[in-house]
Design the sequence.
């Protein structure tokens, strides 16, 4: 078991399959490692080597956690709380994180946090301000804010977005209703020029 302990790094997330190379009896050793505090079981076949500070145990890095869970790095983590930074008067806080990916769907609790896995055919590697706006409009029916107020405020804020990038992102990732709504808003804003 000491050989296995030597390959465990604090703050890392491991799958059972990552660790079985260092043990002849992985199930017995995992039980022992959990019992001795080297690992925490966070989901079926998923373990976290707790990183401790003077304030307690640091939770695992969200990106690493999802990467290990999916066995893939092709995903995008997005919280509806990010919509609040768009300056459209949104203030609600949500207790869910969306994971856009190509493998899983549904709400799954991992290490005390709810992740809503959503199958998407396409998503960017990183979140831009324009993409965030498109996702807000794609998911506007899930937002606990007044939709009419959001659209009204967007009329004034639309000029703060890179128009070419916004059009590209809309074509790539926007739903039909989002595309129609943005075309209407852009036409209205350019008519006032």
Sequence:
């Amino acid at each position: 078991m000491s050989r296995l302990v030597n390959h465990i790094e604090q703050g890392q997330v491991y799958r059972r399959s990552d660790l079985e190379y260092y043990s002849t009896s992985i199930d017995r050793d995992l039980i022992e490692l959990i019992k001795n505090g080297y690992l925490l079981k966070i989901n079926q076949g998923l373990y976290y080597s707790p990183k401790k500070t003077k304030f307690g145990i640091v939770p695992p890095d969200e990106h690493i956690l999802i990467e290990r869970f999916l066995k893939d790095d092709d995903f995008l983590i997005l919280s509806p709380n990010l919509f609040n930074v768009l300056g459209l008067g949104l203030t609600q806080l949500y207790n869910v994180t969306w994971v856009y990916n190509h493998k899983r769907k549904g709400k799954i609790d991992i290490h005390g946090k709810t992740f809503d896995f959503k199958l998407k055919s396409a998503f960017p590697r990183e979140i831009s301000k324009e993409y965030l706006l498109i996702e807000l409009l794609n998911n506007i029916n899930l937002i606990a804010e007044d939709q009419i107020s959001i659209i009204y405020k967007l009329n004034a804020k639309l000029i703060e977005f890179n128009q070419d990038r916004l059009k590209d992102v809309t074509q790539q990732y926007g739903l039909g209703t989002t595309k129609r709504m943005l075309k209407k808003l852009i036409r209205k804003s350019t008519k006032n020029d």
User: Anything to note?
Assistant: The chain has a mean pLDDT of 92. DSSP finds eight helices and nine strands in the chain. The helical segments are 2-6, 16-19, 26-35, 62-70, 129-138, 147-157, 163-173, 176-191.
